[in-house]
From TrEMBL:
Catalytic activity: 2 cob(II)yrinate a,c diamide + reduced [electron-transfer flavoprotein] + 2 ATP = 2 adenosylcob(III)yrinate a,c-diamide + 2 triphosphate + oxidized [electron-transfer flavoprotein] + 3 H(+); 2 cob(II)alamin + reduced [electron-transfer flavoprotein] + 2 ATP = 2 adenosylcob(III)alamin + 2 triphosphate + oxidized [electron-transfer flavoprotein] + 3 H(+)
InterPro entries: CblAdoTrfase-like, CblAdoTrfase-like_sf, PduO-typ
Protein's name in the database: Corrinoid adenosyltransferase
Lineage: Bacteria, Bacillati, Bacillota, Bacilli, Bacillales
Similarity comment: family membership: Belongs to the Cob(I)alamin adenosyltransferase family.
Domain Cobalamin adenosyltransferase-like: 3-165
Species of origin: Evansella cellulosilytica (strain ATCC 21833 / DSM 2522 / FERM P-1141 / JCM 9156 / N-4) (Bacillus cellulosilyticus)
Its EC number(s): 2.5.1.17
Alphabetized SUPFAM superfamilies for the sequence: Cobalamin adenosyltransferase-like (SSF89028)
GO MF term (any one): corrinoid adenosyltransferase activity
Length: 185
């Protein structure tokens, strides 16, 4: 079997249930989810599995969930089954709270950074926000399962909390945004 089919040479691709232009909002949304999944993979490749066993497990779980979400976004069939499980949101909220508690209290915005892992998690946070916006564009016309919208909203918070926890574990101080005001109370 060859990996190329030549079917996309005219700027179209196949969703589950319909052929569309590659510029379609759904293609943009699940493409951004795929990009995010790749950056999560980068994070996994640079983390120290002995120091961050919990984060390794969480990121691997997130990669599987992102594949589920990508598949759900690519499925335009009328009576489709949603693969994305409702339980992923409360689980993610638990993990956000755990990582958030590891870092010192925060009053102002911080600059994205720290070590390579933390910086990568900030990149994941920003890509997640873009993915969320892309999904909301689709949702304006065709309802998207609420679990996907909630999950993406929490996922960006997860990456922020995890990035701060990594810095705290490595004794790296967050750098406050100089001209910022207190935003966290």
């Amino acid at each position: 079997m060859k990996i190329y089919t030549r079917k996309g040479d005219q700027g179209e691709t196949q969703l589950i249930g319909k052929r569309v232009k590659k510029t379609n909002d759904r293609v943009e949304a699940y493409g951004t989810i795929d990009e995010l999944n790749c950056f999560v993979g980068v994070g996994i490749s640079i983390l120290d599995g002995t120091k961050h066993t919990d984060l390794l497990a969480d990121l691997t779980k997130i990669q599987h969930e992102l594949f589920d979400i990508g598949g759900d976004l690519a499925n335009v069939k009328e009576n489709k089954d949603i693969v994305t499980d409702e339980e992923i949101v409360p689980y993610l909220e638990n993990r956000i709270d755990a990582y958030w508690d590891e870092a010192p209290p925060l009053k102002t915005f911080i600059l994205p950074g720290g070590n390579a892992l933390s910086a990568n998690l900030h990149v994941c946070r920003a890509i997640t926000r873009r993915a969320e916006r892309n999904v909301l564009i689709i949702n304006d016309d065709i309802p998207i399962p609420q679990v996907i919208i909630k999950y993406l909203n929490r996922l960006s918070d997860f990456f922020f909390a995890a990035a701060r926890a990594v810095n705290a574990r490595e004794n790296i101080k967050d750098i406050p945004y100089e001209r910022g005001r207190d935003v966290f109370k």
